[in-house]
Amino acid sequence: MTKEQRAEYGIVLLRISFGVMLIAHGLILKYFTYGLDGTVGFFQSIGYPGWLAYVVFLMETVGGFMILLGVFTRWASLAMVPIMIGATMVHIGNGWVFSAEGGGWEYPVYLIVLAVAQFLLGSGPYALKRD
Predict the structure, then answer these.
(1) Which residues of 68-79 are buried (b: 16+ CB within 10 A; e: fewer)?
(2) What is the pTM of this model?
């Protein structure tokens, strides 16, 4: 396997894992675990407008599927950055590690890095629409 082939497979591995993680946070966590009403309530309890919960749910879920499938991957990844900045702001007061009460801020920051890396790298192989 050539260096270029290894790089291409690394890109697709990043794309698939990032897409799956976004789907898990959007669809599974916000819809199936907490429900949209519960997610709206949480957003309101931290001072965000309730309607923003629907936007975040849709962006994470639809964006996650777009990234997973490789459709407008660069732009879907870039669209995740403001969502993850918002998540970072929610968790910043909790401390660094995920085991901190309410979850730490390191994970949303890590997802920002993944989103930017995916934007820079593009969709890689096995994408429905390579960019």
Answers:
(1) bbbbbbeebbbb
(2) 0.92
